[in-house]
Amino acid sequence: MKRSRFWSWLWIGLGILYFFIPLLATLNFSLRMKKDVISLMAYEKVLADPGFVKSFTFSAEMAFFTILASMILIVPTAYWVHLRLPQAKPIVEFITLLPFVIPAIVLVFGLIRIFSRPPFVLTASPALLVAGYVVLSFPYMYRAVDNGLRAMDVRSLTEAAQSLGAGWGTILLKVIFPNLKVALLSGTFLTFAIVIGELTLASLLAWPALGPYMALLGQNRAYEPAALAIMSFALTWGMIGLIQVFTRGTSGTALGGMK
Amino acid sequence: MAFLEINNVNKRFGQFVAVEDFNLKVERGEFVSFLGPSGCGKTTTLRMVAGFEMPTEGEILISGADVTHKPPNQRNVGMVFQSYALFPNMTVADNIGFGLKVARKGKDEIAKVVDEMLALIHMESFRQRYPYQMSGGQQQRVALARALAIHPQVLLLDEPLSALDAKIRVELRTEIRAIQQKLGITTIYVTHDQEEALSLSDRIVVMKDGHIEQVGSPFQIYNFPETPFVASFVGTLNVVDAVVRDPQSGALTVDGQEIQTAQPLSVSAGQTVRIAVRPEMLRMTANSGSGGTNELSGTVDTVTFLGSIVRVQVRLEKSKLFFDMFNNPHLVPPQVGEKLTVYFPREACLVV
Amino acid sequence: MKSKQQGDAPLARPSLPKINWNWLGVMPFFLFALLFLILPASSLFVGSFQDNQGQFTFNNIKNLFTPYILNSYKLTIQVSLVTAVGGALFGFLMAYAVTLGGLPRWLRTALTTFSGVASNFAGVPLAFAFISTLGRVGLVTVILKSLGINIYQQGFNLYSFWGLCLTYMYFQFPLMVLIISPSLDGLRREWREACENLGGSSWHYWRHVALPILTPALISTTILLFGNSFGAYATAYALTGGSLNLVPIIIGAQIRGDVLHDTGLGYALALGMVVIMGASILGYTVLQNRASRWLR
């Protein structure tokens, strides 16, 4: 017993080192912009850069539209599958898992090939970027919504609402959405965390998003990238923290990320 | 010397006393039940015999050898768990043969023992099934066979039937007892179900809050409970308040009506005691026992139809008594509001 | 409700074949998936078998089998394998430590939170973090140098194979922790006790009970981790700036400018990635079926 606990502490200790050394190193680096003093200069520089503000705003907008579109698409579909079309469940599940099989780099290649020539020319529109993000959000959003639906008795709730005279719109907006609040929130935060710093799609579709901005900064600056990494980590931490606050007691885990 | 001895065993978890001064000697081939409500220490005691818990004080001897500090895998004690605990990744045959495989027995020997065990539990055709393909009752029978396959010195059963349906429970109970008697294996059976303990055991150990309340045969435990707890926990009881009128002759009054106990009372006149009467001792007709009959009159309060029996509750003034009568389609049961007199022998009247 | 509709139907149109109108409800989703997922993916498939004039050809596929391309596949697979197996192993040990290793409960909560963050902390910022740590002037590099160990002279390079693996591990093992912890919780105490009771040791328990029970989960998670690094582009791009010859990097370069001088070959390259992912999932299904005969 004592022996095995030693090994447990050892593995946890190694894990903690792995987690924190890069963060500490980055933090240290980000505070060293002024020679020989600890300063927040790197952060000030980043925040004062109009390029940062612009790209962050752009990415945040993209994240907003992605979350909106993903919800409008996924919630009614998952609900309908639960309620009326259980035989479609395997197909829908398969499609939502496809982004795991088709990496983002492959997806963007295909999107460019299809949408850069008639009949659909979309490469000039941010809608294509949002569409790509929606596809990437499928696994996370569907899983969150599916878990949420499974946790409540969709059929009884729907039938109860119908028996009280509610129409489909009322049922979705007043009964299903509110009960899915926690699931939708965790889907939202996760999608936001993924989209905000995404590089592959944004860079290859040539949009001035935060990801390409950071990559560019990394090529010709030394201290600002470290400050950005810390800020980005804090943002991810905030999103995951929010998920855990909202899903406390439920089994919602946050898996994912754009590598 | 007894086959299994548990001497002065105490078990504390921090401040909490789980088992206190536990002493028991079990003879070879005996079937002993530990009976008590949850948290009374019965499972902890069993787990100490199995080796999953170490006693804080005291010793445990099996066949004369001190096993108190032996690890569980060197005790040769078979255990059946409440949740079956079959290995889900193994077939029935692999589960039963596991103990022998671990002991590096030959393939042929393992196969032979597995065959014997399957025959013992009448499940020869289930050899290649996985646990998920069987009902709870079947899984528990396999778990029993698995525990017996290593030819253990002692068989321990930890509430083996409580996860099963009522009907299977009775069926499997009979089977466990038959197998135990056939093999003559020393057995400890933990349960909170008094019916199981009464029907299976040679002896019952009634436990409460970590200590033994009474040890005795089912007959003794049921008919001559030594403590109020045993009286109320084992079987059902009518308990009413009575005022002592004459301790010498055992005369009492219940709601103003006089009754008598068979023994003199040890408390003085005018005091209130609680008396207990088993419902099956109450009759609607005067049928005197050897020491004379008590009678109490009241009004029928409720009549509950329970299938083979009808439970009737009679209200005196404050006190209520219930009794069961067999359901007979040709007899009209008592009606609510009807006046009724119940009779019971004096010796059925226990003072608790 | 449903039976009522069926009851009404024959009265209205007895002769029409039955159409399950419920499928209409999922059409928007299917349409979207078709347009932005299926169609793009299959267009690469088509493109892989077309030459510049749009004529059918096997040349693109054939051109995959050149040392340059094969090496890049090999490298990508190596990185994915190393980080999948390494991440699975390390993640498993950590998950074991907090679930069954007898450590305080709060450590588990903390680890779950960290893992949730770290598994999502990838891409450009992760590359920056590792550059600050193990780059030429990174904190750890500098500290080790002051202790007399110059890791860059010892042959280490963050912008090469092992550096990339080390970086990928940062999101790999937390993912393993998140996925495998519930499976470890599923190991019931009674199984271990039953094993001990039957005379088995700790080794017997792990060899015959715990590991076989965990195998399906271990296989599926390792495959997931494999795919996780196999398709990774952002981290590798930001870390190595394209100096490592990974398949995603080559595809990215091909999209940016015509580095292969052959679009069809680019499509074939992407198709190859999908095929390898598909094959690993197929392998997973086969292994899964063999490892989980005892599962419902």
TrEMBL record, chain A:
Bilayer topology annotation: Multi-pass membrane protein
Record-annotated membrane-spanning stretches: 6-31, 62-82, 94-112, 119-140, 184-206, 226-246
Record-level GO cellular component terms: plasma membrane
Superkingdom field: Bacteria
Keyword presence, Kinase: no
Subcellular location, record wording: Cell inner membrane; Cell membrane
Gene3D superfamilies reported for this sequence: MetI-like (1.10.3720.10)
Domain ABC transmembrane type-1: 56-241
Chief location category: membrane
InterPro entries: MetI-like, MetI-like_sf
A Gene Ontology biological process term: transmembrane transport
Xref: PANTHER family: INNER MEMBRANE ABC TRANSPORTER PERMEASE PROTEIN YDCV
Protein name: Spermidine/putrescine ABC transporter permease
The organism of origin for this protein: Levilinea saccharolytica
UniProtKB/TrEMBL annotation, chain B:
Pfam families: ABC_tran, TOBE_2
Enzyme Commission identifier(s): 7.6.2.11
Keywords: ATP-binding, Cell membrane, Membrane, Nucleotide-binding, Translocase, Transport
InterPro entries: AAA+_ATPase, ABC_SmlMolc_Importer, ABC_transporter-like_ATP-bd, ABC_transporter-like_CS, Mo/tungstate-bd_C_term_dom, NA-bd_OB-fold, P-loop_NTPase, PotA-like
Entries under SMART domains matching the protein: AAA
Cellular component terms per the entry's GO annotation: ATP-binding cassette (ABC) transporter complex
Residue intervals of the ABC transporter domain: 4-234
Molecular function GO labels: ABC-type polyamine transporter activity; ATP binding; ATP hydrolysis activity
Keyword Cell membrane attached: yes
Catalytic reaction list: ATP + H2O + polyamine-[polyamine-binding protein]Side 1 = ADP + phosphate + polyamineSide 2 + [polyamine-binding protein]Side 1
PROSITE patterns: ABC_TRANSPORTER_1 (PS00211), ABC_TRANSPORTER_2 (PS50893)
Function description: Part of the ABC transporter complex PotABCD involved in spermidine/putrescine import. Responsible for energy coupling to the transport system.
Subunit structure: The complex is composed of two ATP-binding proteins (PotA), two transmembrane proteins (PotB and PotC) and a solute-binding protein (PotD).
Family: Belongs to the ABC transporter superfamily. Spermidine/putrescine importer (TC 3.A.1.11.1) family.
Protein name per its UniProtKB record: Spermidine/putrescine import ATP-binding protein PotA
